[in-house]
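Batch 3, record 17
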Amino acid sequence: MSEKQPSIQFRLDPRSGVAPYRQLIEQVRQAVELGRLRGGDQLPSVREVVTQVTINPNTVHRAYRELEHLGLAEGRLGLGTFIIDNPLHLATNAGRKELARSLQEWTRLARAAGLDGDDMLDLLRQTFNRDEHVLS
Amino acid sequence: MTTPVLETVGLAKRFGRKWALRDCTLSIPSGKVAALVGPNGAGKSTLLRMAVGLSRPTAGTIKVLGELPGHENATLLQRIGYLDQERPLYRGFRVDEMFRFGQGANPMWNMELAHSYVDQLGISLRDQVNNLSSGQQAQVALTMCLAKQPELLILDEPAAALDPIAREDLLRLLMRQVAERGTTVVLSTHALGDVGSICDYLVILSHSSVVLADDMEFVVESHRFLSASSSISPTLPDGVTVIDTRTSSRDVTHLVRMALPIVDDTWQITEPTLDEIIMAYLRLGTSSVASEAHGPHAATRGGIS
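Prediction for the assembled complex:
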């Protein structure tokens, strides 16, 4: 095996219930946040990814397109997909989008449970304080 | 529009008095890895055998790569790779002899590809088929299909009865071919884990009928769990079809297929996993497509628990 090492080694958990393309996106995002992937790094080609994990190549394409859509990566014609320069704040943004989405879901549940806006803020404050307490 | 790789209209097959497949209308687009899922006896193998011309329809039509399958259509068969559950190999042959046989029978045969695949799997060309493990035999059988360089691969439970490593090697080999050659695949399987990771089109057969056929991308997006306290028993939102219903003494949960996003505060809405959706369809007790939202709904209880 004299080929160059891929910039990221993907993992796939088929039992997580999380769609495979989301798992790939999340792993790239985390790698960027942790500094393991940096601006200009090339993501492994679709062919490489299908030798790393048992996954449909179309799913890898889809994850890469979504990473471009999120502004984290860019496709360069004939070359491959690369992490954009200074990706860090975008990774954080993408993380925030994900948080906002789960918060929306939570808000819907809370409303269904009969909580109004103030109740939700109270609950958030309580939870936050408890966490602070645990962490300190 | 490209021609669908597999297109059926009102396709049916009867063996004696038993319908193995009924009123099957399907259109699988090119470039997909399509999973055919369903309980034993749901008609998966029957459909696949008709697709390669090994069996004739009782009613309806089937077109494969735009053509009618049948033994007289030899040029079509050269464009298809088919592997059934028996994985036919000549047991007294060596691997290289199997390959030479494949080369003689298939004008598009790619010997280099065949060699590189078995090499990657650690199988020697001089190994005798008899002496290979069942996992390796499955790999050689699949390699025989891939080296034909078919446009369409039809695989009947390709990874059944393989140990976890052999199955992963086999599926990766398959995905490599899809990535490098854009081959379309239609495969039947019982392994729901494989469906989510390697397939991007889903067909669910139940009681000899198609109950769901869609792009994997839309399957999860178009299904939701709706829960509510049974004391409220709210009406269902418009445009939803109930697939499965579970009730407890306190609440009721429906798995629904929706035509539009649901905006409704009376229901608690959660996203199901792919497995949950497939299981709900497999449990469908009736042979018809799921009953409409407001109709009576009693057929989905019981079954496997």
